[in-house]
Write a structure and sequence with these properties.
The chain is of the alpha/beta class. The protein has helices at residues 80-87, 92-97, 102-110, 114-129, 146-158, 185-202, 220-232, 249-255, 269-278, 286-291, 300-306, 326-337, 341-347, 350-355, 383-386; strands at residues 2-13, 24-33, 36-42, 50-56, 61-64, 66-68, 133-139, 166-174, 208-213, 238-241, 260-263, 281-284, 310-312, 373-376, 393-397. The protein has an 8-stranded parallel beta sheet with strand order 6-7-8-9-10-11-12-13.
C-alpha cells in the first residue's frame, strides 16, 4: 500500500464504537490517501506502509476533528445592546416591545446580502476552526420569509468555498413568527410548508428541517405539519424542544425518527425512552442554559439510564448563546451538566456526527472516513474540558490536509 501521509507516534482516540471506551490506541498511527483514512493501527505496523509524508506526533493526543452540530452561525447584526439593557434590569418583554429580541436579528438579516452574511459569519467560523472544528451545522431561521431563508442557506453553503470546513445546513423556517404574520401562526406554518420548503428542497439548500416547539414558538400540531412536509421531500428532521417547558417534544421527535432533539432541559423519562428506541440523539446546549440563566437541568441521568446518545454543541446565535468556542462548551457540559470526560469527547465527535446523519463520513477515526483530525498538546484528554479560555490545539487536519 502507498499512501499520501502517515501520522505516527500519537495516542489516538479513535471513537470506534467496536472498541471499548474512546477506542484508544497507544502509540498509534493513521494513514491517509486522497483525503480519506485508509488505515489505523499500531505505529510499529505503519513502517511497512509506503508514504510520501510521515508526520511524527511525539506522543500527542489525536481525536476526530470536532463537530459543532447545532449553530445559527449565519445572521446579521448582534444583540449586545439588548444584553446591556437586560443587565440594567429591562425585561425580555420590554426589549421585544422596543423592537428587540429575534425581531431585531430578522430585520438586520433581511437587509443583508448573501455576501454580507458570509463576511459576518467568517470571524465566528474562524474561531471554531481554530479550536479543531472540521464539520459544522448551520441553521437558517432569521429570515422568516422565503427570500431571506434561502439567502441564509446559500450563505451557509458558500462558507465551504471560503474555509476548509464541511457545512451541513438545516432549514429552520419554523423558528419564530415574523412581524408581518400579526400573530397568525397557522397561516405562517402554511407558508413554511407550501412556499418555502418546496423551493429549498428543489434547490438542494438544506440537509434537514428543524422546528422550535415551545409555548413561545410553535405547537405540537404545527410542528407535525412542518415534519410531515419535510418527510414528503425526503428530508430528515430535527427539533428544538423541551427547552422552557415539557410539551412532549422529545417524544414527538422520536416518533418522526428525528436525527436529534435539542435543548431538552424539561424532557421526561417517556421522551427519553422514545428517543432511545428511535436512535434520536439528545443535543445538549449548555451555552444557552448558561446565558439565559436557566436552572432546570436536562435529565442526563435518565438519558444514560436508557442509552440515549448525547451530543453537545455551541448553539452559536446572537440572542441566547453568543458562543463561538466548542472547548468552552465542553467545560460547561462538565461543570453544569456533570458529563464525564469520555461522554464529552464522544459528544463533540462521534455523537455530534450522528446527530447530523454524518456518522458514515466523519466523527470517528476509521478506515474509509474523511481524514478529519484534531491533534492536541495535552497530556490527557481531560485537559480539553478542564481548561477555560485556553486552546491546546497543535494541528487541525481536514480531508487529509
Amino acid at each position: 500500500m502507498h499512501v499520501d501521509s502517515i501520522w505516527t507516534g500519537g495516542r489516538i482516540a479513535t471513537l470506534d464504537p467496536a472498541l471499548p471506551g474512546l477506542g484508544i490506541i497507544e502509540n498509534g498511527a493513521i494513514a491517509a490517501k486522497d483525503g480519506r483514512i485508509v488505515w489505523v493501527g499500531a505505529a510499529a505496523e505503519s513502517r511497512a506502509i509506503e508514504t510520501r509524508e510521515r508526520i511524527e506526533l511525539d506522543g500527542r493526543w489525536v481525536t476526530p476533528g470536532l463537530v459543532d452540530c447545532h449553530t445559527h452561525l449565519v445572521y446579521a447584526g448582534n444583540r449586545a445592546h439588548e444584553f446591556e439593557l437586560r443587565l440594567a434590569g429591562a425585561s425580555y418583554e420590554e426589549i421585544a416591545r422596543a423592537g428587540g429580541g429575534i425581531a431585531s436579528t430578522v430585520k438586520a438579516t433581511r437587509a443583508a446580502s448573501e455576501a454580507d452574511l458570509v463576511q459576518s459569519a467568517l470571524p465566528r467560523l474562524d474561531a471554531l476552526i481554530a479550536e479543531g472544528v472540521t464539520t459544522i451545522e448551520i441553521k437558517s431561521g432569521y429570515g422568516l420569509d422565503k427570500a431571506t431563508e434561502t439567502r441564509q442557506l446559500r450563505a451557509a453553503r458558500a462558507l465551504e468555498s471560503h474555509r476548509p470546513i464541511s457545512v451541513t445546513t438545516t432549514f429552520l423556517g419554523a423558528h419564530a413568527l415574523p412581524p408581518e404574520a400579526k400573530g397568525d401562526k397557522d397561516t405562517y406554518i402554511d407558508t413554511v410548508c407550501r412556499r418555502m420548503l418546496p423551493t429549498i428542497a428543489a434547490e438542494g439548500l438544506a440537509d434537514a428541517v428543524d422546528a422550535f416547539m415551545e409555548g413561545i414558538a410553535f405547537s405540537a400540531e404545527q410542528t407535525q405539519r412542518v415534519f410531515d412536509a419535510a418527510v414528503e421531500f425526503g428530508l430528515p428532521v430535527k427539533l428544538h424542544g423541551d427547552q422552557l417547558s415539557n410539551l412532549g417534544g422529545a417524544k414527538l421527535a422520536a416518533r418522526y425518527g428525528a436525527l436529534s432533539a435539542d435543548h431538552l432541559e424539561y424532557a421526561d423519562e417517556e421522551g427519553a425512552i422514545a428517543m432511545a428506541k428511535s436512535g434520536t440523539v439528545a443535543v445538549l446546549l449548555p451555552g444557552a442554559y448558561y446565558f439565559i440563566r436557566e436552572t432546570h437541568k436536562p435529565p442526563v441521568d435518565i438519558f444514560r439510564k436508557h442509552g440515549v446518545k448525547i451530543a453537545i454543541a455551541t448553539d452559536s446565535n446572537p440572542g441566547s448563546s453568543p458562543l463561538t468556542s466548542l472547548l468552552l462548551t465542553m467545560n460547561m457540559a462538565a461543570t453544569l451538566f456533570r458529563l464525564s470526560v469520555d461522554e464529552i469527547i464522544a459528544a463533540v465527535t462521534r455523537e455530534a456526527a450522528r446527530a447530523l446523519g454524518r456518522l458514515d463520513e466523519v466523527g470517528t477515526i476509521e478506515a474509509g472516513k474523511s481524514c478529519d483530525l484534531a491533534i492536541w498538546n495535552v497530556e490527557r484528554l481531560a485537559e480539553l474540558p478542564y481548561r477555560m479560555g485556553f486552546n491546546p490545539l497543535h494541528a487541525r487536519i481536514w480531508r487529509g490536509r
